[in-house]
Amino acid sequence: MTQTHLPLRAHELTKHYGSRTILRRVSLQIEAGETIALQGGNGAGKTTLLRCLAAITRPTRGAVWWFGHPAYGDPKVRRYVGMVGHESRLYPHLTLGENLTFAGRMHGIDRPIRRAERLLAEIGLAEHGHRLPTQISRGMVQRVAVARALVHHPPILLLDEPFSGLDVEGRAWLMGTLARLRDMGCAICFSSHDETVAEILADRVCELRCGRLYELGGERRDDARREDQRVLARVA
Amino acid sequence: MTRVAKISACWREWPERRESLRRMAGFWWIVHKDLVSEFRSRRVWPAMLLLGIVVALLFSIQMNLLPEQKRQILGGLLWLSVFFAGTSLFDRSFALEREDGCQGALQLLPVGPGTVFLAKLTVNALALLALEGLLIPLFFILSDLSLGAHAGPLLLIAVLASPAPAAVGTLVSGLAVGQGRGGLLVLVVLPLAVPVLLAAAECTRLALESRLDEVWWRWLQLLGAFAVIFVAAGVLLFEYVIED
Question: Where are the beta strands (DSSP E) in A51-160?
Answer without folding.
Answer: 61-66, 69-70, 81-84, 156-160
